[in-house]
Amino acid sequence: MPTPRIGVFVCHCGLNIERTVDTQAVAEALSAHPGVVHVMDYDYMCSDPGQVAIKDAILEHRLTGGVVAACSPSMHEPTFRRAAEEAGLNPYLFEMANIREHCSWVHDDRDEATRKAIRIARTLIEKVKGNHPLEPVQIDHCEKCLVIGGGITGIQAALDVADAGFEVLLVEKSPALGGHMAQLSETFPTLDCSQCILAPKTVEAARHPNIRVLALSEVLDVSGYVGNYSVKIRKNPTYVDPEKCNLCGECVKVCPESTPSEFDCGLVERKAIFIPSPQSIPSSYTLDENTCLGLHPLRCSECAKVCEPGAIDFDMQPEIIEEDVAAIIVATGYELYPILNLGEYGAGDVPDVIDGLQFERLLSSSGPTGGEVRRPSDGKVPKKVVFVQCAGSRDPENHNSHCSKICCMYTAKHALLYRHAVHDGEATVFYIDVRAGGKGYEEFIQRATEDEKIRYLRGKVARIYRDGDQVVVWGVDTISGKRVEMEADLVVLAMSIDPHPSAQALARTLRISCGSEGFLKEAHPKLRPVESLTAGIFVAGAGQGPKDIPESVAQGSGAAAKAITLLVQEKLTHSPEVVSIDETVCGGCGVCVSMCPYAALSLNAAGVAECNEVLCEGCGTCVSSCPTGAAQLKNMTDTQLHEMLEVALADG
Amino acid sequence: MADERTHGFEPRIVAFLCRWCSYAGADLAGVSRMIYPPNVVPIRVNCSGRVDVTMVLSALEKGADGVLIGGCHPGDCHYVNGNYKTRRRIEVLKRALDDAGLDPRRVRLEWISASEGAKFRDTVTEFVDTIKGLGPSPVRIGATAHGES
Fold it and tell me: Which helix (DSSP H) or strand (DSSP E) does residue A499 occupy?
């Protein structure tokens, strides 16, 4: 190995680093570090002049490696590695020392922060001294995309990928596409009918030659890596042959068993054999085996007796579908925070306290009341309705701490639609603040507040209880400071938004992470909002955080664009920072083979370990279990780590 | 030693942080401008599973007063299950340290996710306090003969 000639580039990041770290002192200290031949500090190393300075230094000082002491490598590692490459130096010979996120931003004592910055930079100088030039591993990939979640986000993503010419598997857990959007009456701020704008999309997804819709299906297992994921999906039986079913509905009339309707949010019951809504896609009935008397012709089989086309098949089995996909888009959506958690608001006890989605069903022409607003307890038209915003949101002590983002808007919509339906009705909205950030949103709120029979009352509701056939709402008007007690015929709680309950387990299967409240975590909150940290897996829609329809659709398209970017490449590249085996040292014990989570290691004919670089992800678990030190991670060997520790802990 | 324990002892600590969770959690602490003590020098590894016992011992031998290992929460490992392997290794190591007369609290394994900037800050703050309470490592000051535990 040639004598190292390392260049060190210390960034001020304006004042971000300079304010707490004396960058000149850092540069000076590092200039004396063995192997360092060039040191400079500069305002913004990532700027064009900064990068030019790096390239010039590489050429002028014949550098064999470089360390940029600046921000987190997750920000600018590609920037500086590309600059090195442009100057003819292998990019893997450039490293970043994180003296911003891990130093200047988290300490306030300038001397101590400066000393720590020097230590951090020294560890990376030692690492670079042991780095070798590497070339990315090239891999072939398949050309399919998996979309998990058939709500509006997943549908949009599937359509975009399919339109680009790639095959898509669209997996939906429930019997029909459309997600919560299919349950909505009208959408803010334009008051378009939700089904009317959704149906063309679901129909298009179902008939698209590149999309295979798998409803009532779930992802069981995912293995592999970007470009080559193997997925296992279980398609649960509907017990109705969709090819034969002609939607006549005779089966529903004779079915003796009922259960609360999921689509109508439990406001009415549905039969064991059902279709969520007349527009449902796939357009076929589903026999719910948990409600059915027993899937056995001798037990009941009333549905099969009246089914003229003979579509009912009690013997239908779950189907296991195994496919290879290059990319996965996760659009698992939301669920409302359980209303039963709000006992203080009478939820579960007072039948006329309902959640926002139930109110959507009461407003919807396809709903249980045919679009007439009637309260659940006695079917009366409510003349006084109270809407409670932030029900379960922004309440870290008792419920969710986050803002659910869409409730201010849909409550205004509810109040307006209620007033359209009940002309002499009065609506009161309890709010903490009204958040209406969006195109046309503020104007929409204005429209609601200008209605003289919609009263916006700033305050928090403390308690809701029943008094005869009335509901009593107790709260505080925080503007007048007075206590408020009012009677209502119906109370609608704008429930907080939770991630879908299945998201956490799915995230584990996919090896992506969730944030503190269970929403899928993006790779970067601002710059990589639709990527997960796992290459080839993308996140979109309300599963990533509360979102309205336009934002969900935009994220669906965004995730699709990311997936397409991957699909169109001829070959994918893979980090070369993977494991190598020194065959002269390997004793062939095979411990590494059993430790590898990717089956990248095997014992070859000569009885020594061998690493498949395409499969290796570079975790290094084998390295730490290898008894001889034969397994080493390229550019992060044991020797390098020991040298790094030496300087991290040295005096001075 | 007693003097150093009470007067201005600043522990030297290294932290092996996995790239996907704990290093990113430390980044988030930075982005959120959370202040914590400057005693910890972070070393980024791909996975906490990369951290083997000899690496921790090497750090202690080179004079670390404490070693922190940060990994993804159980079930969340970017590399399937590297963190479980580390958990077992570190458990065994702590027992061995105890036998060797070194306080096992000098080695701490913590699960810190990419969204837990505050947990990173709290972990570092607490760990520095713990080590300050324990005083300089007997290895560093050449007092291994009698041990400390």
Answer: strand A497-499
